[in-house]
Predict the 3D structure of the following.
Amino acid sequence: MAKKSFPLSRVYGLLEPGPVVLVTTAHKGVANIMTMSWLTMMEFEPPLVGCVISGRNHSFDALRASRECVINIPTAELAQKVVGVGNSSGRKVDKFAKFGLTAMPATLVAPPLIDECYANLECKVADSRLVNKYNFFVLEVVKAWIEPSVKNPRTLHHRGNGVFIVAGATIKLASKMK
Amino acid sequence: MAKKSFPLSRVYGLLEPGPVVLVTTAHKGVANIMTMSWLTMMEFEPPLVGCVISGRNHSFDALRASRECVINIPTAELAQKVVGVGNSSGRKVDKFAKFGLTAMPATLVAPPLIDECYANLECKVADSRLVNKYNFFVLEVVKAWIEPSVKNPRTLHHRGNGVFIVAGATIKLASKMK
């Protein structure tokens, strides 16, 4: 995709709807991918994102050691790959190769962007105070990319056990909310 | 609605898709409602929920003082009320009266359930270590209720500035993910 730089001040609008994301990490030069649903915005600008990554995940060690990751947002066409990534471990397989996903270089962090995802957020760990108790990381988004042709992304929203809601109709109401 | 008790072990499936919620609090006997989108699951069981509530909100003081709230999940029919609640302050108006929402007693906490919402989660503050820095509360869900007739809730997912995605089609993929 021919991604464009996306303003950090608008990043919240990508994550606030609650999509499943693919998180890329890099550890000793080896990139990995995990599927993640437990994340929330915490601040508008600079954009802060809170997320829980299970200590059982290979990505947990990579994120804790490198303090960098990329949050990639997939759409419904990638559903089968999203589940495949979530059901396999980077300890055993190269998920980029296995699921036919394309790694593209990021600008400010070592982990790669996933080209097939319509948005990519380069992140650095900003606070690890709650990692020991809850596996909860506070990330700062330092650079954002978007595929500008995707106006109404059909994001995936996980209800558990492989059941996903696909983003449906968009409605606009008069609001003073940001 | 004729709500039924809902297993705490399944609560994550209600919040993991990222719906906008209405949070009720009670302070000195007065109930209030706020609209919230910045929340994430943090643990399956007992279910823990992390959420950010701006210090500018009247509900922030109520939650910090009382350490109790209810997370109520609305569906698309309530969209106009969700925006109305988000655009007004409990300092000035009784939002239950103004928006025609019905307060029902909770069982384990003082703030009321909103009857019109298809699911209600009674919560207590479990950790307030990140409140000062990020307005971030960790809540434990202590009791959950659901309207069993709502099988595929048309939840709302906020993209910012009053633009909402409505939950669309549901897809089920073979998965080992919880």
Observations:
- Residues 58 and 89 of chain A are 7 Å apart (CA to CA).
- Chain A touches chain B through 56 residues (CB under 8 Å).
- DSSP finds five helices and twelve strands in chain A.
- Chain A has one domain: 8-166.
